[in-house]
Specification:
This protein has 227 residues and is of the alpha/beta class. Helices cover 29% and strands 20% of the residues.
């Protein structure tokens, strides 16, 4: 089954202006530190598709004409494409918060195509900079990665969203390291009439192990492998 990394745009891939929260001109366009290097590495992790999901308040209105958005969006996509990073899907909602549109994050109206049986949402992720991105992950049944320099744990806990948040960080380097570690681990259990075996393996671990086979010498030999 396919797995998805849903990625917010403003504040996650590019810097979100603190005054009007709209990147509506090339003069405002600035990419977050480390985003290209880490997004490229993430794109190499097998089994994931990259999907952009963004709220663009009032897109198409006189205050935010589509032409202004399109110029910035094409520059963003081309910059990532030049680094070998492509998105299998791009979903943009143009409503305002007061519209309460089902397509607006954290609603899942834009993403119904991913709610079917072809996708493994339990092992998918939403990466974003706002609590609404964590809420989107919760609504989709995904895990969230919150890219934000502020300590939002208390607020997340108050909204019952902390369990949905797999990682909180201010650095893209941490996001790739977390995803790489998550992917390069596995747990397998095999039970037969004669044996009951369970192993949990993390290829990016520290070499420490906790082994108990009932045979001391066998434990010792397996510990050499873990180191």
């Amino acid at each position: 089954m396919k797995k998805i990394i849903f990625i917010d745009r403003d504040g996650t891939l590019i810097v979100e202006p603190p005054d009007d929260f709209q990147v509506d001109s090339l003069e405002k366009l600035e990419f977050l530190p480390g985003v290209f290097r880490n997004m490229y590495l993430i794109s190499l992790i097998p089994g994931f598709e990259l999907v952009m999901v963004s709220n663009q308040d009032g897109l198409g209105s006189p205050g935010y004409p589509f032409a202004a958005y399109y110029q910035v969006q094409q520059k963003v996509l081309k910059a990532f494409e030049n680094e070998g990073i492509t998105f299998s899907g791009i979903h943009i909602d143009s409503s305002m918060p007061e519209d309460n549109a089902p397509t607006r994050k954290p609603g899942t109206g834009m993403l119904t195509a991913y709610l079917g049986g072809d996708y493994n949402l339990e092992e998918s992720f939403v990466i974003g900079d706002r609590i609404t991105d964590v809420e989107l992950a919760f609504n989709l049944g995904c895990k969230a990665i919150l890219l934000n320099p502020d300590d939002l744990k208390a607020e997340l806990d108050g909204q019952g969203l902390l369990p949905a948040c797999a990682l909180i960080t201010s650095q893209w380097d941490d996001i790739y390291a977390f995803l790489a570690t998550t992917i390069r681990s596995a747990s397998i259990e095999r039970i037969t009439k004669e044996t009951s075996i369970k192993i949990c393996l993390n290829l990016d671990g520290t070499g420490k192990s906790n082994i108990s086979t009932g045979l001391g010498f066998f434990d010792h030999m397996l510990e050499q492998i873990s180191r």
